[in-house]
Amino acid sequence: MRSGKSLEEIRRIISLHKRWDLIFMITGIIALMIAIMTFVALFAHMLIDGLPRLSWEFFTSFPSRRPESAGILSAWVGTTLVMLVTAVAAVPLGIGSGIYLEEYAPRNLLTEIIEINVTNLAGVPSIIYGLLALGLFVYQLGFGQSILAAGLALALLILPVVIVATREAIRSIPITIREGAYALGATKWQTVSDHLLPYSAAGILTGIIIGLARAIGETAPIITIGALTFIAFLPPSPVKNEFPFISFEWLTAPFTVMPIQMFNWVSRPEEAFQLNAAAAGLVLVIMTLAMNGLAIYLRYRMRKNIKW
């Protein structure tokens, strides 16, 4: 009799858990569909308003007070240069920091404090990074309101993301890979460079591209640094005709970026400027989706080629 009651109790518990699993699954699907439908509705509205405005002239024209002749040339060039500085500054530093914290740093109180702070910094509002960059790069180091200051500000923003992604990717490698390398006489650096990094490259690249995709749409740090809302010229070219054929004058040039240009157009009352903002937003969304799509593709290709 007791065993019969116990069996009935077990069945009741299993049935209750299955019911809660079903409720959670339905709730998750509803939440996912709300998010997807919201994005689709906003993107469709942006597509309807902005697609007719897209043309070759729109990409090759400077901003103008006349909406029909205004373009995003200075905005997308500025965005490209700022993202170049961001990638050059954040990617090597983030990967190196992640490798050190995961493989080389001693397990003590100081390391734990650093790890907790790095994780928490990934959730700090972006305006805080803008204020930090304003005080450090603009005023203390004298970079001014330049592409260099903006790129370094966004590098600070995505640096915790790159570090965390690098650590998680390395941590996912089975311990047997390390043990096999050490058993064959490999040094610490040989194990990291020849085994851990190649196997974790897919996860690291995914984190890098997702971080850059976040940075490309940030507005608050760029406004804090002092991005201009109206620029009718381009920064100096990075390439020169005379030796050494490379110029870094563009690093100190004033700039604008796509989100700032959109903000400028949205703040104007004319409906034609609203259409320009929708077109610029459409370009920015496509760039972000392309970067995330590239991350998914690279992760798939690299994981496919890995042989454990």
From TrEMBL:
Keyword Transmembrane set for record: yes
InterPro entries for this protein: MetI-like, MetI-like_sf, Phosphate_PstA
One GO term describing the cellular component: plasma membrane
Domain of life: Bacteria
Keywords assigned: Cell membrane, Membrane, Transmembrane, Transmembrane helix, Transport
Keyword 4Fe-4S: no
Topological category with respect to the lipid bilayer: Multi-pass membrane protein
GO molecular function, one term: phosphate transmembrane transporter activity
Predominant cellular place of this UniProt entry's protein: membrane
A Pfam family recorded for this sequence: BPD_transp_1
GO biological process, one term: phosphate ion transmembrane transport
Compartment annotation: Cell inner membrane; Cell membrane
Domain named ABC transmembrane type-1: residues: 76-295
NCBIfam families: 3a0107s02c (TIGR00974)
Name the record gives this protein: Phosphate transport system permease protein PstA
Organism: Nitrosomonas ureae
